[in-house]
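Run log // design_07
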């Protein structure tokens, strides 16, 4: 559990690092003006497309070759990509290595959560995933702090070094007992396309994805483009993306802990997600009512937005608990990465709508859509608290 938590810590550090150093790194590469937004969107989308590709690849690999194969392979790939990112001299090279980093980053969370849920009892696994997520998301806070004191290239080198050090810790990790048991059975494993051959199975899969989309709307739109949004709101003082992301993830740390605990206390994943979706909707609305507020107030609202989005641990656990051992890694790895990949259509829609209706109305419209869809998806999703995970998905 602790090794999975540290792995997710490094994963989140790298995942949000580009959003934090977007302005400084692109300026250093010679960009200015509108290019800081447009090229920033392009590079963020390259990373997220990589995560979509990697989510499918690592998910299938985790079911076919084991959870540990993903934990070792994914962190090695994104550590190398991180180091390479620190040496880029052009936007094209930057984009290529963000794509490769995205592929590597895609495997960490799903494999870690799958391993933890399959290793611990149904009574304790909710607490365990809560700890993994709480420690993990604090990696973003660490990234925000580090960015205040080091050059953006050094920040990427630090991420790469942390990943390589973690590889040493993983030598002592053992494979899941449920997966080892599965190896003796002649059942199909890791068939990604089977998620689309049954309406009931596809519906479960789709609902798992949709309940998580508001999380990355907050991070991918409201936090990443907070300097531009703050400018449109007339916020007094300069707002930095790195600081809004840091405050957001401070809130996420607390939110993940509270939502995970509530899901255990109430013995219901759905109730915990519903409460936090409601908080998130309220904070998103408040974000667009901050006209003329101070820089400090805007940062604290970012923390509140993070708290409302802090059902990530419960969300990923729900995905892992919905499906059998022969598809669990595929689902647990692809679901969070499809949510992260939703940033691509969200940012493209944001770019397309902004010139027509304005940057604030564009972001607000997307927020309404994301939260509304998530509530509908949650309504149709089945409760998974206390569910036995020793079962096979019929394919």
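design_07 sequence
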């Amino acid at each position: 559990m602790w090794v999975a938590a540290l792995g997710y810590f490094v994963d989140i550090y790298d995942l949000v690092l580009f959003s934090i150093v977007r302005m400084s790194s692109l300026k250093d590469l010679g960009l200015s003006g509108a290019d800081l937004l447009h090229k920033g969107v392009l590079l963020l989308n390259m990373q997220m497309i990589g995560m979509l590709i990697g989510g499918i690849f690592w998910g299938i690999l985790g079911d076919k070759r084991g959870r540990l194969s993903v934990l070792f392979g994914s962190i090695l790939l994104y550590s190398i990509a991180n180091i390479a990112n620190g040496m880029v001299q052009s936007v094209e090279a930057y984009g290529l290595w963000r794509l490769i980093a995205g592929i590597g980053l895609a495997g960490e969370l799903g494999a870690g959560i799958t391993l933890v849920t399959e290793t611990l009892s149904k009574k304790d696994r909710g607490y365990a995933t809560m700890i993994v997520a709480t420690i993990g998301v604090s990696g973003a806070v660490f990234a925000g702090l580090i960015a205040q004191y080091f050059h953006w290239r050094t920040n990427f080198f630090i991420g790469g070094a942390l990943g390589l050090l973690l590889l040493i810790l993983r030598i002592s990790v053992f494979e899941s007992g449920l997966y080892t048991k599965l190896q003796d059975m002649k059942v199909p494993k890791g068939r990604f396309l089977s998620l689309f051959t049954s309406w009931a199975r596809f519906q479960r899969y789709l609902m798992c994805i949709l309940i998580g989309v508001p999380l990355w709307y907050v991070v991918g739109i409201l936090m990443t483009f907070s300097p531009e949004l703050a400018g449109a709101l007339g916020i007094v003082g300069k707002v930095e993306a790195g600081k809004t992301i840091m405050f957001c993830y401070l809130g996420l740390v607390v939110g993940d802990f509270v939502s995970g605990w509530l899901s255990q206390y109430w013995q219901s994943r759905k109730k915990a997600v519903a409460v936090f979706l409601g908080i998130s909707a309220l904070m998103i609305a408040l974000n667009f009512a901050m006209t003329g507020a101070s820089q400090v107030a805007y940062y604290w609202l970012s923390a509140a937005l993070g708290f409302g989005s802090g059902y990530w641990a419960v969300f990923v656990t729900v995905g892992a608990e919905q499906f059998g051992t022969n598809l669990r890694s595929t689902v647990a790895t692809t679901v969070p990465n499809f949510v992260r990949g939703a940033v691509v259509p969200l940012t493209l829609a944001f770019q397309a709508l902004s010139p027509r209706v304005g940057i604030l109305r564009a972001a607000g419209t997307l927020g309404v859509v994301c939260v509304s869809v998530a509530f509908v998806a949650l309504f149709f999703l089945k409760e998974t608290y206390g569910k036995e995970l020793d079962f096979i998905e019929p394919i």
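The chain has a mean pLDDT of 86.
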